Amino acid sequence: MNNIRNARKEELRYIREQRVRAYSEHEKAIPKEHWQALKKAITSNADIQPGVELIVAESNGEIVGSVALFQANTDAYEGYVDKSDYPEIRVLAVAPDARGEGVASALIDECITRSKEMGYNFIGLHTGSFMESAIKLYQRKGFERLPKDDFEPANDGIIVKAFRLSIEAK
Question: At what angle do helices 103-117 and 132-140 cross, to 10 degrees?
Answer without folding.
Answer: 50
